[in-house]
Amino acid sequence: MAAAAVDEIRASSYVGFDSITRQIEYKLLKRGFQFNVIVVGQTGLGKSTLINTIFASHLIDSKGRLEHDEPVRQTTDIQAVSHVIAENGVRLRLNIVDTPGYGDQINNEGCWDTIIKYIKDQHSAYLRKELTAMRDKHIQDTRIHCCLFFINPTGHSLRSIDMIVMKKLSEVVNVVPIIAKADSLTLEEREVFKNNIRAEMQYNNIRLYPFDTDENDPEELALNETIRNIIPFAVVGSERNVIIDGKPVRGRKNKWGVINVEDETHCEFVHLRNFLTRTHLQDLIETTAQIHYEAFRSKQLLALKDASARPAQGSA
Ligand SMILES: Nc1nc2c(ncn2[C@@H]2O[C@H](COP(=O)(O)OP(=O)(O)OP(=O)(O)O)[C@@H](O)[C@H]2O)c(=O)[nH]1
Ligand SMILES: [Mg+2]
């Protein structure tokens, strides 16, 4: 290096470590992001339909991709649907896990077990990969970051089975309740129902996402508060496109009119989509790792430690 250039570097106090943010960004962009959502709720509330609507709203094209000729069938097992969405060079793998609806058996005891087990299995798979001697530099993350909980739009109150399932879920995953088939409620009914649900959840001590922490700055706290005022999101889903102003949009056509799923005056689908893919994506991922996975991990490791201590005590 020329002596003059060395002198110049020495003379300036700038060392250039601020480029670290660009280096991190580059690495993250290369890897892409993975976001995993699960949908849970009673049978026939439109879970499969909403998954299709969410994907279609990102992937809609002139060829009418994701337009189905067949009606959706009742879901019989847990299955994941996955698509990569790219925006401005950022790749997001959005993975939505569909589950069979519950609540149509005579005895619904334990109907939530398979879903809770599925969520825990993902934590367990991650932990196993983390604990191997030659662990991967980047572990494929299948942990569920958000659970959309579908509520029947009865207009009255939550069924006790929903309370139980929501409580169980909230112990292992970020739960976000949504009012399904919101087209069946008038705007006034919707507001009353929302307030009833919020009150019931508070009464039953169900701790829902978002969580305020000491690390949150005032801006984040304010954002959480606005989300809390909307939750439960009142959404409408549709498998079909309808033509509005010459453009195909997801909607439901009735004798008395058309509901445009993406119209904010009709339902809160756009709010839900923004919440998931715009405002809270990173926080949902972080909360999963720091609260839910951490709790699972420490419980497992303590159990492991206890188990390994036992034979030693016996032989002593
Ligand atoms: N009115 C109305 N009907 C809907 C809405 N979303 C879905 N549906 C209809 O409800 C029926 C059931 O929808 P699915 O998506 O199969 O419901 P699901 O929750 O996946 O049902 P399971 O797989 O049995 O748990 C279908 O006929 C849908 O067209 C909605 O927002 N409003
Ligand atoms: Mg289904």
UniProtKB/TrEMBL annotation:
<protein>
    <recommendedName>
        <fullName>Septin-type G domain-containing protein</fullName>
    </recommendedName>
</protein>
<dbReference type="Pfam" id="PF00735">
    <property type="entry name" value="Septin"/>
</dbReference>
<dbReference type="GO" id="GO:0032161">
    <property type="term" value="C:cleavage apparatus septin structure"/>
</dbReference>
<dbReference type="GO" id="GO:0000921">
    <property type="term" value="P:septin ring assembly"/>
</dbReference>
<keyword id="KW-0342">GTP-binding</keyword>
<keyword id="KW-0547">Nucleotide-binding</keyword>
<dbReference type="GO" id="GO:0043934">
    <property type="term" value="P:sporulation"/>
</dbReference>
<dbReference type="GO" id="GO:0005525">
    <property type="term" value="F:GTP binding"/>
</dbReference>
<dbReference type="GO" id="GO:0051301">
    <property type="term" value="P:cell division"/>
</dbReference>
<keyword id="KW-0131">Cell cycle</keyword>
<dbReference type="InterPro" id="IPR016491">
    <property type="entry name" value="Septin"/>
</dbReference>
<dbReference type="InterPro" id="IPR027417">
    <property type="entry name" value="P-loop_NTPase"/>
</dbReference>
<keyword id="KW-0132">Cell division</keyword>
<comment type="similarity">
    <text>Belongs to the TRAFAC class TrmE-Era-EngA-EngB-Septin-like GTPase superfamily. Septin GTPase family.</text>
</comment>
<feature type="domain" description="Septin-type G">
    <location>
        <begin position="31"/>
        <end position="303"/>
    </location>
</feature>
<dbReference type="InterPro" id="IPR030379">
    <property type="entry name" value="G_SEPTIN_dom"/>
</dbReference>
